[in-house]
Amino acid sequence: MNLKYRKTVIAGNWKMNNNLTATKEFADAIKPKLGRHKWCDVVLCVPYVNIPGAVKAFKDAHLAIGAENCHYEDHGAFTGEVTADMLRDVGARYVILGHSERRQYYNETDFAVNKKIKAALNVGLKTIVCVGESLEQREYGVTEELIAYQVKAALTGLDDSAMRHVIIAYEPIWAIGTGKTATAEQAGEVCAHIRFTVRKMYGARVARALTIQYGGSMNAKNAAELLAQPDIDGGLIGGASLKPDDFAAIIAAANQ
Questions:
Q1: Which of the chain's termini has less CB crowding within 10 Å, N or C?
Q2: Element of type H or E holding 39
Q3: Is the residue at 93 inside a domain?
């Protein structure tokens, strides 16, 4: 973390977990543990149908609610989809875009992710943009090239002012939901490469201010070590964000 130049952000990604009752129970359990977390922002990204209830459950807490996806069009015949404006209208302030599970299971391309980012920013949502490599791609030695390509494709067409509302999350696909975690050094190296790529695109000022999260199985035990890396400015938390004690511990680690 580098608190001099950028904000640390801890964001939970609930994926397809927890109904409204469980959301309220989670809020009751974690709110006493949150405090003001002076040095970091906290976000909880929940399934679409839970957003209004989560906003209400956390209305008296220092925590923002986000969504896990949106469509790139602002209306139309796209059965089952949700627009960025709809998310904003029910109280979401953030949205995760380009998660590896969306890319893998729903064939989302880098170009679709770019359009979604623009749609979300256009209505005032902050975006958490995911990039990452598979184990095979890492073993082939193409991690840096692949990550640079994903970053460039995601950010194409965004100006400097838009970048103030973008967070990039590095999520090595081989470490998501597997219990495996990149070493702090491995994670730090890729996050540094992301910042280097953004520096080439936008210059040193924008790159220095960019929040870059690590999104590969960060948990209560390894959060402090990962967050000690100078280019890791938070976490996109999966399974641990479903457990109030673990999520609170990660937030505490980011608030040191």
A1: C
A2: none
A3: yes
From first CA to last CA, the distance across the chain in angstroms is: 10
What does the angle CA 152 – CA 157 – CA 163 come to, to the nearest 5 degrees? 75
Whether 204 maps to a domain, the answer reads yes
* Residue 1 falls inside a structural domain: no
Q: Is the pTM of this model over 0.85?
A: yes
| Cβ proximity of 11 and 236 under 8 Å | yes
Whether 13 is in a domain gets the answer yes
**In which element (H, E) is residue 67 found?**
strand 64-67
Cβ atoms within 10 Å, residue 162: 15
Provide the pLDDT confidence category of residue 178 given band limits of 50, 70 and 90: low
Is 99 labeled as catalytic in the residue annotation? yes
Candidates 71, 133, 171, 193; catalytic one: 171
pLDDT of residue 8: 95
pLDDT reported for residue 177: 66
Domains in the chain, number: 1
CATH of the domain at 81: 3.20.20.70
| Percent of residues, the chain, with pLDDT higher than 70 | 98
Query: Which position among 68, 99, 108, 133 bears the catalytic label?
Result: 99
- For all residues of the chain together, what is the average pLDDT? 94
Distances (CA, A) of 86 to 108, 124, 175, 189, 202: 21, 12, 32, 37, 31
Which residue range(s) make up the domain with 96? 8-254
Distance CA 148, CA 72 (A): 23
How far apart CA 34 and CA 42 sit, in angstroms, is 9
Do residues 123 and 93 make contact, with C-beta atoms less than 8 angstroms apart?
no
